[in-house]
TrEMBL record:
Keywords: Mitochondrion, Ribonucleoprotein, Ribosomal protein. It comes from Halamphora coffeiformis. GO terms for cellular component: ribonucleoprotein complex; ribosome. This is Ribosomal protein S8. Belongs to the universal ribosomal protein uS8 family.
Amino acid sequence: MKNYLWNMFANIQNGQLIRRNVIFQRRKKICEEFLKILWAEGFILGYKIDKKNENQVKIFLKYTNNKPVIRSIKFLSKPSRRLYQSAKQIWKINSNKSFIIFSTNQGLKAVTDCKKLGIGGEPFVAIN
């Protein structure tokens, strides 16, 4: 499951390093859920399913002043070392400095949504 996510985030980082406007990614449900969160938080311009190949997703990358919006992506929880944070631990996170996406029992949620709902989960990625 996570190999698709690691591929997607590596493609996004590499695409922004070479200043691409659009990148293509293999279409998976978990990747689309992450893209929804990234789009809602303003890290990408959008995404859509490719008309020619329905197994691919077009991701439109976002830049401000010719610099990528996503400066760095760090994977927090790995298959060899799983991390879990309770709702109390999530409240200690400063959400102004970094953006963290959690896998919860209610699906993928941003750190701000986890604070509102009072739930914990497994942190996947931190985006700066």
